[in-house]
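Figure 2 data, in text form.
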Amino acid sequence: MPSAAFADLLPGLYVAAIAALLLAALRRFWDAVPGWVVAVFALALLGLFGSVLFRGEILLPLDNLRGEAPFRDLEPTVPHGNLIQGDLIQLVAPSGAEVRRAFAEGRLPFWNDRVGAGMPLLADPQAQAFQPLVLLAMPFALGAAAGVTASLRVLLALIFTFVLLRKLDLGNGSALCGALGFGLGGFVLLWLGWPMANSAAWLPAVLYGVVLLDQRGFRRDALLLGLALVGLLQGGHPETIAYSLLFTLAFGVARMLARPRGARRAVAVRAAWVLGLTLGVSAPTLLPAAFYLPQTARASREAARLADFFPNGAALTARTIPLVAPNAQGNSRVLDYWGPNNTNEDACGFVGTILLLGALLAAIPTYRRFPQEVFLLGAAVLAMVGAVGLGRTRLLLVAALALAVVGAMVVERFARGEGSRLAALAIGLGLAAALAWAYLAHPYPGDPERLAIFRFGWLRWQLRFLGAGVLVLLIARGRRFLPILLAPLVAAELFLLHASANPPMPKRLLFPTPPAIRFLESHTRGGERIAALGRALPPNLATLYSLRDARIYNPAMPASWERLVAPLVTVPAVAPGQGEVPAFVRPADPLYPRLGVRYLLTEPDVELPPPLRQVFADRTARIWETTAPLPLLFAAGRPEPKAQLSIDRVSPAALRFAVPPTLQQGAWRLSSGILGLEGWQVRASGHSLPIRRELGALLAADIPAGTTRVELTYRPPGFLAGCLLAAVALAAATLRGRRKGIPPKVAVGG
């Protein structure tokens, strides 16, 4: 076999090996997954990621670059990229590449010097610096790693939802239905490439660990819960992490309250101990993020959103429809969507028509309940109310998992002969009427024919799956094989709905290098930066070519940076699903050279006035050189105004230089093109100096006379304290683990 072909197989073999180790550990220490269920999960992964894991294709929407300069000469792909996934190549991949660069150079990923005037990297949760599912993909290049991480996310969601349902007294077939509903459902697959998919992958494992700790309390159960919590806490999306932790806390409290009063204290102590240890171990990343996030642009925007609590009736209806009929208002993947946000935001709570039917049947109060069924049903309702009423669509993570679990419980109830055929028929007819209303009464405003074939086709598909599900419940009630008949229907519908959400791309599109990019790579030096005007060269993308982009596209960008460049920025109307991407304008503004921007890239038909000088042009782009861009560090003031300093760059977070003899004779001002956030320290000949901020944002310092050497270092605030907490937590865990009989075993409960 040619070496290239064998290399294409390695991601798939690697994921298979990890899956085998995980399943073997579950079989040895916790709960085994039957072989036939493993085969179903393997088929699901192959259907979703076969070409990515075994044929060398890339799970990044690289085809989306064709619409932007300088990538217009790229050949289109079939299928096209998913336009709604622009963040994956403009935000997630660049941040991940910087983390990889840091680890490859043997340093911690403290600072990203390739965007804006720099910004924190470790403290930016979206960088996922220590997310286990991302770290496991580190042996592969960035393109292949995206597919490995995505596969592991789906794998964890499937396996741990299954064992969780088995632990809640469901049979294998019903547990399989619930696992397929969540693992192939909207939240996992629509958000697959984003950090929030980590929360979806780890949440079932956390809940499974809670059940184990409650029922048995072995040390290995505490270990599994701790590992799952660490994975969740390193997820990279604070909002879904917070919702997952709150849901887990409520889930655990509900189980504890179901215990006899005398047994509650032991359970609470064990759970608090595990949570405290995992928070301590995760502190080196959690504390820097806690210090930094209030300083970001996202924080100010979220504060403004808090006022939008009471949408009108039309908005409530539009937000509710995708939870039942995900394609009734179009679909962002086919360019036309007239719902409140986009398909990912609004439809990610959908887990399949059959499980939705089951969740509706669970609302009937006359049935014997499974453990925590009422709690989960209430959690689903509250989460959907929060998503619809408050616009907090990330709550649909909780809703999706709860609906999948409750729906599977109803499937199990019918398999045991306890469900009502009359109720199934009545609620099935009601759901069919709701689907017809959702699809037929909500056409595109002003043009009812737009996407009519697509929408009516999906109405028919959902009615078919609903009809087949009701028929199985009616005919096979009381038969243990009933869930086995429903599981293929659940999987088929979700595959039909979501398989196209993550189209693989050919290897030839893995960050191609058009002539304009090659020019920039060969002509930029030192700390020089580039920028692009308008929609040319999407922000952050240049960093994948080792260029320093003066723009930032990141909700976690520093608010001080956003204020600094506000005069340069406009937010143009962009293609559906790409969100609001800030665009630089005003090419003659003196802020460009002050920030060290040497080159401006534009569309090929743009003309810029002097003193900007055109240095490159082809049919895809033009490049213009600015006048006298300032270096990264320079001496401002006498005796040498704006004198460049020769930097000894140790890392993006550590720079030093020897002071020229002409500057040692008197005091002078050190100016920079570095964002002066808290955490930077300037030392002159070994003495710390106070930080100044020029233009309200850029790092500066007054250097005293006689200084021979200056050092600039950045350490994320809270990092050292976090390391201390992690050391204490690990020491406490080691000491506790050596104590005989700790934690104690308790009787099965819940």
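Caption note: The mean pLDDT is 90.
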